[in-house]
Every structure is written in structure tokens, then in C-alpha cells.
Amino acid sequence: MPRRKAVTLQTIADELGLTIHTVSKALRGLPGMAESTRKLVIDRARALGYRTKEQEAGIAAERIPWAQTRPRRFAMLIGDSAFHRLQMEGVRLRLNELGHSLAPLLVPYELAGERELEEWLARNELFFADGLFLTAALPEWMEAALLRLELPKVLLNYPPDLAEVDSVIWDVEYAVQRAVQELQRHGHRRILYVGDIASLRGFRLRWEAFLRSARQPALQETPTSPEAHVTTSTADRAVWMEQIRQRLSEGGYTAVLSTIPDRAEWVGVAADFLGLARPRDLSLIAMENEANPHIAHVSRPLLLVREAGERAAELMLRRLANPLLPYEHVRLRGGFHAGSTLGPPRSDAD
């Protein structure tokens, strides 16, 4: 990676075929350009190791140590899914930029208890890591045991009550509320909630956020009983999709909020079975961790999973350099992708 002084705005502009003015605007976050161009500039600047004075000042203000300090080696427990890889990409990218390394390890779901977990940690030399990143979707007993370890930790999840740990999360509560707001703004009054509400902490928080939104006077037609929605696990897909078909055919719903990633495609299949076109007959908003090529057109709140990984890396380095600072919980709020599955409810005259 080139040293900071070897790279200038002109270097980036020449490589991308842009003007210095455009590059400068992109890096300073100024309006007046396509977001694709801005992302292109930012990604290239990061790859070249270029930082603006404002970025340097921001890192200093956050008390994040520079790479001139001793390189650190961190570990991260991840699952075998695109969701976990997104988190890991963000952590690794930010650590590499600041001169440190990351060793990912698959979560040992097969372990039966804390003694086996401790043996597994020892075999993988995690006690010698400079810090540990804990991802969302860890079994709760395992997460609790790992949070008791003495080494520095950052949790990429909503923290348990009373947990003394730095944490960062893409704000799913805000995303649910934003989705409901968009449906309400388009005239929907009866919304079907689709998603497991029990198995994970984040799933429970989604449902609670939906209930808070549904209690608005404008949404009084939306039921707040779990039995009126599709809130069970997807372990038996056939049973789960039959529940969706029943609710859509009998419940008078004009919109669906699908809150579990990679499930909106199934909702679409159930709607197609009933002949419900989107958005003419049924609006659909999905909570996806990233753009899904199978349903690229779906309307969705933006979940900042990769960005949460980057922020987690900064929190870890900040904690190492300043161990007496108070713990922080950071929530990242994204925007909303309009897509093409959101519209007004169909009137009787249509």
C-alpha cells in the first residue's frame, strides 16, 4: 500500500479519469454527484491509503491509535453465511487500513457447554489474541461465556442487559419503524408482519419495534397479536408459506413487512400463488442485509452490516488505547431504497 505522502488528489483523479474537484467533493461528502461516483472515489482512496485532513482529525478525536503502534492480531467468530462475511469484511478492511490483522474462525455451534468452549478457545490460541470480535447470531449461552473473558471485546449486536462491552449494530429497530412509516405514508393501514419473533435477540427487537409503530392511530387496522401475523420459525418451509397464503387470502392485508433476510423471495412466491402482483395488489418491504440479486427491485431499509464491522474495528482500537473510557453502544441508521414493490393500496374502483 502506498504511503500517505505518495498519494494526492491528482493521483486518484488520474486513475479514475475524474477532475480533482470531483474527487475532492466526493471525499468531503458534498452533494452534487452520483452516489456510484462517490463510492468509486472513496473505495479507490482507501485502497491507496489516502486520508483527508478531516479524516485524520476524526481518528485523532476518537482516540484511535495509528498503525505506527505495534501491529495487533485480532480474532473474530463468524458463521458460515454471507451475513457474517459482510461483518468480517468491514472489520478486516478497517483493521488493515490501520496496520492490524484479523483471524476469522467459524463459530463452534457443535459445542455442548462452557468447558468444551474453553478447550476450543485454547486450541485456537484465542487467549493470545489482542482482542475478540463477537458477531450476531451466536448462541446466547456462548455469547454470555465469551463476554466474561478478560481480553478486550467488541460485540456486533445489541448488547445483553448489564453487559460491560463496547458494541455496534445496524439499527434494526429504526429500520422496522422506517419501513412502517413508508407503508403508512403510501396509505397502508393493515400490514402483515412476517418473521420469527423469538429465536434471537434482534428478532425480538424487530417485533417490539413493529408493535410500537402499529399502535399509531393511523394503523389501528393492523392487529398486534402474534397469531394474526406470521411469526413462527421457517424450519418447515411448506407450513410457513401456507401460513402466509392464509393470512394474505383471508386477512385483508394490503402490505407485507418481511423482517428476516432472504425470506422476501418466499413471500413473493406465496403472493404469486394467490395472483397478487407487487405493488398493484400488495406492497412488499423486505429487510435484507444486502442487495439480493433474486429480488433486486424490492423496497427495503438499508442495513449497514459491513459498515458496522468497520465501526467495530475502530471501537476495538479505541478500547485498547483507552481502557478506562466508558463502554459505548453505537447504532448505525441507514436510508431507504425505494425499489419497485412499494405503492398505494389498491382501491375498490381499480
Automatic annotation (TrEMBL):
Keyword Transcription regulation: yes
Pfam families reported in the protein's UniProt record: Peripla_BP_3
UniProt keywords, alphabetically: DNA-binding, Repressor, Transcription, Transcription regulation
Sequence ranges assigned to domain HTH lacI-type in this UniProt record: 7-61
Gene Ontology molecular functions: DNA-binding transcription factor activity; transcription cis-regulatory region binding
Keyword DNA-binding belongs to the record: yes
PANTHER family found in the cross-reference section: HTH-TYPE TRANSCRIPTIONAL REPRESSOR PURR-RELATED (PTHR30146:SF148), LACI-RELATED TRANSCRIPTIONAL REPRESSOR (PTHR30146)
Protein name (database record): LacI family DNA-binding transcriptional regulator
Provenance organism: Paenibacillus sabuli
